[in-house]
UniProtKB/TrEMBL annotation:
Domain Integrase catalytic: 560-728
Highest taxon, organism lineage: Eukaryota
UniProt biased composition (Low complexity): 552-563
Any one GO molecular-function label of the UniProt entry: nucleic acid binding
Protein name: Uncharacterized protein
SUPFAM superfamilies with a match to the protein in the record: DNA/RNA polymerases (SSF56672), Ribonuclease H-like (SSF53098)
Coiled coil: none
Biological process (GO), any one: DNA integration
Domain Reverse transcriptase: 93-272
Source organism per UniProt: Rotaria magnacalcarata
Length: 855
């Protein structure tokens, strides 16, 4: 008896030290004494000196139907690993977690090395799990549990010690948990974590034991039990009741992981107070310690960890978009990994946000109606849940996500309806049975929840899915984008994702402004609002929808601009430019019947001027005054073979400006394709505005050119104006005037250089697929030959040929070779020469050579 008392005394002293530490923060002496008494009353629940099994009605079962038992040989272990394995088995036997077995089932053991050099004991139950019938018991969601804690002041958290090992397994199913080592077979008496249905069984046990009937003051997530109350008096009662249940069922809690009667508690990696919720500092630090990803797995791990806290991060989907380009690639490229500057900027931006207070959300006030602001763009949906409490606007939740490819192809109305319904579904735990007013910037959705049939199958399906929450919607209000700024901003990059709503001429159309109002039709969007000079991040918008126009509609002068700058910085033109003349066009009332056109190959930007006559002086004027002196000299100028270009004046200008030049082949528009492509578009569009006599075509030329330059080019994916000038084109019909904010010139220069590099790379990437598509179409069955100087060739006839006339003239002699595709040919015995493309010539084959081939 004396020996027993001497053993209990140290244990009692140790327990007293533990509970003193658990209650030392309670400042009220009486409250502290009360909690000490409670803990003493249930001291056996805190006794971790030996392992215990709970006395509960529910035992874990492993339904495997009538499948044959599976067994494998033990995996090879080194002598050091065998020593570790033997110690682990001895410990489990001592705690009655396992026992010896003669089962026909056998799963192997894996020892996984941890960073500190020790090993983790794992039984590989994959074969058993594969034949186990799945338990569909639902786990409570994090948001559901956190929302239950709203508005409560006192918290006590209890953590079960080795919680899974306290849940017994059904006797008939123990043999299925057998694992094999070099020393024999062992089977589990209690629940092992890696079994298929271990979490559902654990949650069912805890729900039935504690949570059921006590939902208003206790929540349970597996082995974490959180008791919450409004007053300290209530809290004492609630803690007593929960500890009584645990002790009766012989559950043991781990004192080192418990906290008693705190006003701030960490639960499910969140810090909870009476006012609201914030991320756990430890988890934030763990994210900050993550280095830049080197593999796809690391990138997915980072976006998963940061995504757990996305409700705290405004514009989460927008910021994460560059990383999702890496992690969400479709099809065969889904395993490819790259990490460029764009991804690193998003990575750093997230870390910056996590270290910039406040990261805090207010708990909802159930007595106050909610306000839900929603919005969508072509790429994402988002929303903000708010409440006005005592005259102060409080944010409860941020949410946003990327749209799927199918969703992004939906109409604007369908996407706006999706935003409303998706946000309501995600926030149903927060909203509960409270009323909610929804703000949207899409007027057709005003009170659409009250309509039995909206007239759109997709929208009607959304209404059907959310019919249980429709009665809670007080009103759906229309708020323009500039007023619905919080949700609107979450779905868009700066100036990105403009929605094509409808096109209409601005203002009253009169005879004087008819041409301008018609040509310069544009989409009125939410984004026509004040813009900062430079974006807060370093991203550049590279995605834009291409407007497809019917042949009877004018080219809309719409743009989806890159991040704007109000400083007029011109970029130096690079690459090739093309110069050509269009004529003769019908003589206008002002006497003009020529148009000279110059196009930049990369940006597709067009400059055009009208002239009464196409002579050398007019060509020189366009090249120098309208192009070179304004935009800088191109690297190379490709010009056609008109006399107005191949003259001494043009040659002098080209030499003086140090421009490389090349002539296109006669009668082959493909060699000057950029400008010829515009010429074709120009003619069709100009015809729409001219009178019957076409005598006013020169009046509308610049409007058509402007529409072309500010519209989205199908090949590059950008407006030519944006690529040429690196900024947004501001139409004279924009209803708002941006506030100009001048930063340091050095910052603007760095931003423009960075933006320009990204945009040009993106443009080249957009052009490349188009070239791959065009090449097979143009090059099918083509076998262009290579000719040497002195070879005799025939030249194709293009002009003045009737149907029965000769198609080829010659022979002519190859005099000079100009690159791989062009040749100078001359008529034998004369000084007359001409430039021809390789597709325009055919080699002369003499008859005796033909005869030899025939033989």
């Amino acid at each position: 008896m004396t020996s027993t008392n001497s053993e209990l005394k140290p244990q009692a002293n140790e327990f007293n030290a533990v509970i003193d530490k658990l209650t030392e923060h309670i400042t009220n002496n009486q409250d502290r004494l009360d909690f000490l008494d409670i803990l003493h009353q249930f001291r056996h629940t805190f006794d971790t000196s030996k392992a215990t099994q709970a006395h509960i009605a529910i035992h874990h079962t492993i339904p495997t139907a009538d499948v044959q038992p599976t067994s494998v040989c033990p995996f090879y272990k080194t002598p050091q690993q065998r020593e570790v394995l033997n110690k682990e088995v001895e410990k489990l036997l001592h705690d009655n977690v396992i026992r010896g077995s003669t089962s026909p089932w056998a799963s192997p053991v894996i020892l996984k090395k941890k960073p500190d050099g020790t090993y983790r004991f794992i039984v590989d139950f994959r074969r058993l799990n594969a034949v186990t019938k799945k338990d569909a018991h639902a786990q409570p969601t994090t948001e559901e549990l956190l929302n239950r804690l709203a508005g409560h002041r006192f918290f006590t958290k209890l953590n079960l010690k080795s919680g899974y090992f306290q849940i017994p397994i059904s006797e008939v199913d123990k043999e299925k948990t057998t694992f094999v080592t070099q020393d024999g077979l062992y089977e589990f008496n209690v629940l092992a974590q890696v079994l298929m249905n271990a979490p559902p069984t654990f949650q069912r046990v805890m729900n039935n034991l504690i949570a059921t009937g006590r939902w208003n003051y206790v929540v349970v997530y597996l082995d974490d039990i959180l008791i919450f109350s409004d007053s300290i008096k209530e809290h004492k009662k609630h803690v007593t009741e929960v500890l009584s249940i645990l002790q009766k069922a012989r559950f043991t809690v781990s004192p080192s992981k418990c906290i008693i009667a705190f006003e701030k508690v960490e639960f499910l990696s969140h810090i909870i107070t009476v006012a609201g919720i914030e991320p756990s500092p430890d988890k934030i630090q763990a994210i900050l310690d993550i280095p830049s990803p080197k593999t796809l797995t690391q990138a997915n791990r980072f976006i998963g960890k940061i995504g757990y806290y996305q409700k705290f991060i405004k514009n989460f989907a927008k910021i994460a978009a560059p990383i999702h380009k890496v992690t969400n690639k479709p099809g065969p490229k889904k395993r490819e990994f790259y990490w460029a500057e764009e991804q690193q900027l998003a990575f750093d931006k997230f870390k910056q946000i996590l270290t910039t207070p406040p990261l805090f959300l207010n708990f909802p006030d159930k007595s106050t109606p909610f306000i839900l602001s929603t919005d969508t763009s072509k790429v994402r949906v988002g929303g903000v849940l708010k409440q006005v409490v005592n005259g102060n606007l409080k944010v409860n939740y941020y949410l946003s996500r990327l749209l799927s490819q199918t969703e992004s192809r939906c109409s604007t109305t369908e996407r706006e309806a999706l935003a409303v319904m998706w946000c309501l579904d995600k926030l149903r735990y927060y909203i509960g049975d409270s009323s909610v007013t929804i703000n949207t910037d899409h007027k057709p959705l005003v009170n659409f929840h009250k309509k039995l049939n909206f007239g759109n199958k997709r929208v009607d399906s959304y209404l059907l899915k959310m019919q249980d929450m429709l009665p809670q919607i007080v009103e759906i209000k229309y708020k323009p984008g500039k007023e619905n700024y919080d949700a609107d901003y979450m779905t868009r990059q700066d100036n990105q994702g403009r929605d094509e709503k409808e096109e209409w001429p601005r203002g009253t159309v009169t005879w004087d402004d008819e041409a301008i109002a018609t040509v310069c039709t544009r989409s009125k969007t939410k984004q026509q609002q004040q813009q900062p000079l430079l974006p807060t991040n370093d991203t550049v918008v590279l995605n834009t929808p291409i407007t497809k126009n019917a042949s009877t509609k004018p080219i809309p002068a719409t743009t989806t601009p890159i991040d704007p700058t109000h400083d007029r910085i011109r970029r130096t033109q690079e690459g090739d430019s093309n110069l050509s003349a269009i004529g003769q066009i019908a003589t206008s009332d002002d006497g003009n019947h020529y148009a000279l056109v110059l196009t930049d190959n990369l940006s597709k930007y067009v400059i055009a001027e009208v002239y009464p006559g196409c002579i050398a002086k007019t060509a020189a004027n366009l090249s120098v005054e309208k192009y070179i002196l304004v935009h800088g000299a191109p690297e190379r100028l490709i010009i056609d073979n008109g006399a107005h270009f191949s003259n001494a004046l043009m040659k002098a200008i080209i030499q003086t400006t140090n421009i490389k030049h090349a002539f296109s082949a006669s009668y082959l528009p493909q060699t000057n394709g950029q400008v010829e492509r515009f010429n074709a578009t120009f003619s069709v569009q100009l015809t729409k505005y001219c009178n019957k006599e076409n005598s006013d075509w020169d009046i509308f030329l610049q409007q058509v050119v402007n529409a072309y330059n500010t519209g989205i080019h199908a090949k590059t994916g950008f407006a030519p104006y944006e690529l040429a000038f690196g900024r947004k084109f501001r139409s004279p019909f924009d209803s708002t005037s941006p506030v100009v904010k001048l930063p340091r010139a050095a910052d603007v220069y760095k931003y423009i250089q960075r933006s320009r590099k990204i945009i040009i790379n993106a443009t080249c990437e957009n052009i490349r697929p188009q070239q791959h598509l065009s090449k097979p179409r143009y090059g099918t069955n083509r076998k262009d030959s290579t000719y040497n100087i002195g070879d005799l060739v025939y030249v194709k006839v293009y002009s003045n040929r009737h149907k029965l006339g000769e198609r080829w003239l010659g022979p002519f002699e190859i005099i000079q070779r100009c690159g791989d595709q062009n040749y100078i040919v001359g008529e034998q015995g004369t000084t007359r020469t001409d430039r021809c493309h390789v597709s325009q010539v055919r080699q002369v084959v003499e008859w005796h050579n033909v005869a030899l081939l025939a033989d």
